[in-house]
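Narrative progress, year one. The postdoctoral researcher (J.K.) led the effort to move from monomer predictions toward full complexes, under supervision of the PI. The following entry was the first complex the group processed end to end, covering 221 residues in total.
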Amino acid sequence: DGGITQSPKYLFRKEGQNVTLSCEQNLNHDAMYWYRQDPGQGLRLIYYSQIVNDFQKGDIAEGYSVSREKKESFPLTVTSAQKNPTAFYLCASSVEQGAELFFGEGSRLTVL
Amino acid sequence: RKEVEQDPGPFNVPEGATVAFNCTYSNSASQSFFWYRQDCRKEPKLLMSVYSSGNEDGRFTAQLNRASQYISLLIRDSKLSDSATYLCVVNIWTGKLIFGQGTTLQVKP
């Protein structure tokens, strides 16, 4: 089945540790996105990529990093510089930038 | 002013009621619009795209008013299963998709 796979679904980390969230898609989509959602809030854009080897900062990129070495993969690293990393992280893809988004099931990160 | 704004609600309605949500956007050059549904602790899922002429999908009707810069979602004959958060999404001219805060709907028996 075509879709987007995020892993892990739940992750607990100690303060000061970097963590990497995986996002893989087999939809052959060019554009991929990372969003963050806090309780009772909408989604905020962290990073997006329109094409392999290219990515752009979203509205809240500080403390995060990404790579896009393959079309199928867009991993997100939450670094120790991110002041409040506990959140629900959602990866999405679209056939082209600005088109309908397809989401993975999300990763819940809790920093203790 | 936020780029995309929604009334967070909650909207509490009885089964069978008709309910409408609005979503305003600030960038007049915005190009495409969507409504997503999000259930508690789940990922958002596309409910419907919003076309200039308005569009309908069963009990759901979406409309776009470019002059006043808002989109709307109308749900007729509400079901218990319609209880969720409805997210408005706007593609601003740069191609970024911006989400509203979401409107929570609770349909009561």
